[in-house]
Amino acid sequence: MRLTGGIEEQLLKILDVFLDHAFEKPRHFTLMFLTKREGARQYPEDFRARLSPTANVSADVIARAMETGYFRKDDVWEIVFETGALMQGLVMLYLGGRMRCLRRVFVPFVTDRLGGI
């Protein structure tokens, strides 16, 4: 994924791609995050070893944000994992029918919570 713009624009692009994938391929999304399977990447070792191409994108943006003072310094991988868990949880609740709203309402709901981390 090629990211341009400032930190916030890059984070929102990552979020958009994540949400688009969840809505376009909900079964694949469920398989990725809910199905226990051999070889699935595990936190923290696999992530810190940069074995997750998708998490690496987020980690790189968050690390740059910390380096430039946009975010305070913290553990990049903890932030990536925790925000990823929040995104996954919200999407799973939506896909599972636990949120009574249309997609056009759900997307800004998630973006508002995660756009500025």
What key attributes describe this structure?
mainly alpha, 117 residues
How is the topology of this model organized?
Blueprint: H1 7-24, H2 26-34, H3 45-48, H4 53-68, H5 76-95, H6 103-114
Helix pairs in contact: 1-2, 1-4, 4-5
Description:
Helix 1 crosses helix 2 (26-34), helix 1 (7-24) runs antiparallel to helix 4 and helix 4 crosses helix 5. With 117 residues, the chain is an all-alpha fold. The longest helix is centred in the last third of the chain and has 20 residues, at 76-95. It has helices at 7-24, 26-34, 45-48, 53-68, 76-95, 103-114. The protein is built from 6 helices and no strands. It is globular and about 40 Å long.
E-strand count:
0
Structural class: mainly alpha
The description of the largest β-sheet is: none
Q: Let me know the average pLDDT.
A: 92
Our Rg estimate from Cα atoms comes to 14 Å
Produce a short descriptive summary.
This protein has 117 residues and is mainly α. It contains six helices and no strands.
